[in-house]
Q: What sequence folds into this?
């Protein structure tokens, strides 16, 4: 990528101004866009500048005002030939925010990226399997005398996997954002997070290996005496950007032979995806969907449930194995939360009709209940008949209430529910579209 000083003076001024004052744009078909008063998020403004510089570098220009629609077409064609057209569209979609601002301000008469509308978002089905993660977690393969090796493993296993950070967040961490206690305590400032209206978040590491790597890295970093606040630095003490952190991850994966489920060298974002796929209940760390949502900082828990629970290939594989074993007469069911094991004997199991009727006051549908019971291994089929573990159904009916009931009881709206749950250390569960919490937690808040 071209250095900032290699761009024209006018381009440098435009990018500097956009980084500080880039605003949202209101646009309607056939009308010239109008600047709104609210700013784009700091992270989005930085991303737009970064992606525009990549675009300029690829097309061989150093003047943002000299870009044409033909340049955009050439850029897309070049990436399409490598099978990466979607990636190129997303680069231009980010960069277009700058041209929208220029067009709305009358600095340019046409938008050269006008044909680029929205980013292409696809549900990721690529991740790293547990055996690949085990290679990264094995500290015997780390050269603790090599600054680069320790740093690269920390960025790969610690930042990208354990903390599930986006690469832009990793690159913008400061040394003051990290402290060592029993765990690695990581402060994630609002301005480096994706989107707007974010809150300051403190995360703790899940894996002891992350703390071991961070402790070693901080000592080596201090010996370099870098003149930057950036957490991750080069061997010369310079701050690592997005590209430097990405290269660190790929270098570490190539060294250990870690590949994704598509046989490729994983990108940092693949490890963020791998964290959720491998650690949601009932896998790995066995985190419930709400905890995974917090770690990934999703705005909507339905996204977490749909992508990482309902469409989780590892969970689907385990379900398949259980069905096959059951068919072969070798199934041995073990249930959590006081459930039973064995077949549908009298007193231990109930029919689907009885189970749905039992939890009807919670608003749970048979589709949602069936998925929930399968995940808990609390469902048994005999021909066309479906049976449910009686203790689990009775526990739901007696001890849980819906989010709707909670909001009615405590007198607050939907937006405050998850804040209440988090502040009270209440752990909701999701059954279909119904969110539930334990009744005793509600009563404790109501007293």
A:
């Amino acid at each position: 990528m071209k250095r900032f000083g290699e761009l024209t003076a006018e381009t440098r001024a435009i990018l500097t101004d956009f980084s500080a004052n880039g605003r949202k744009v209101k646009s309607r078909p056939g009308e010239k866009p109008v600047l709104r008063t609210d700013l784009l998020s700091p992270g989005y403004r930085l991303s737009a500048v970064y992606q525009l510089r990549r675009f300029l570098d690829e097309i061989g220009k150093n003047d943002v005002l000299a870009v044409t629609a033909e340049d955009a077409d050439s850029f897309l064609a070049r990436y399409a030939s490598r099978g990466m057209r979607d990636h190129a569209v997303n680069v231009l979609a980010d960069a277009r925010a700058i041209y929208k601002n220029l067009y709305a301000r009358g600095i340019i008469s046409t938008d050269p990226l006008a044909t680029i509308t929205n980013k292409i978002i696809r549900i990721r089905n690529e991740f790293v399997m547990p055996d690949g993660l085990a290679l990264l977690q094995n500290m015997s393969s780390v050269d603790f005398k090599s600054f680069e090796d320790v740093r690269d493993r920390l960025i790969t296993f610690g930042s990208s996997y354990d903390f599930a950070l986006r690469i832009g967040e990793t690159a913008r961490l400061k040394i003051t954002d990290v402290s060592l206690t029993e765990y690695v305590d990581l402060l994630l400032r609002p301005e480096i997070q994706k989107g707007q209206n974010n809150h300051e978040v403190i995360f703790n590491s899940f894996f002891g290996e992350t703390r071991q790597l961070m402790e070693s890295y901080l000592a080596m970093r201090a010996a370099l005496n870098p003149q930057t606040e950036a957490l991750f630095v080069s061997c010369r003490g310079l701050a690592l950007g997005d590209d430097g952190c990405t290269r660190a991850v790929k270098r570490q994966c190539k060294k250990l032979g870690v590949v994704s489920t598509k046989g490729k060298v994983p990108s940092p974002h693949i490890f963020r995806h791998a964290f959720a796929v491998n650690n949601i209940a009932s896998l790995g760390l066995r985190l419930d969907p709400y905890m995974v949502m917090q770690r990934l900082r999703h705005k909507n828990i339905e996204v977490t449930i749909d992508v990482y629970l309902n469409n989780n290939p590892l969970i689907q594989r385990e379900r398949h194995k259980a069905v096959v074993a059951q068919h072969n007469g070798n199934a041995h069911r073990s249930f959590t939360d006081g459930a039973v094991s064995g077949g549908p004997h009298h007193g231990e199991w109930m029919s689907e009709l009885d189970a749905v009727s039992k939890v009807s006051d919670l608003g749970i549908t048979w589709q949602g209940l069936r998925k929930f019971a399968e995940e808990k291994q609390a469902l048994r089929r005999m021909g066309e008949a479906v049976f449910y573990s009686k203790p689990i159904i009775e526990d739901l009916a007696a001890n849980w209430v819906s989010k709707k009931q909670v909001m009615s009881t405590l007198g607050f709206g939907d937006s405050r529910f998850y804040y209440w749950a988090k502040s009270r250390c209440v752990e909701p569960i999701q059954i279909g579209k119904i969110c539930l919490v334990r009744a005793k937690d509600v009563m404790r808040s109501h007293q």
Residues 189 and 333 are 44 Å apart (CA to CA).
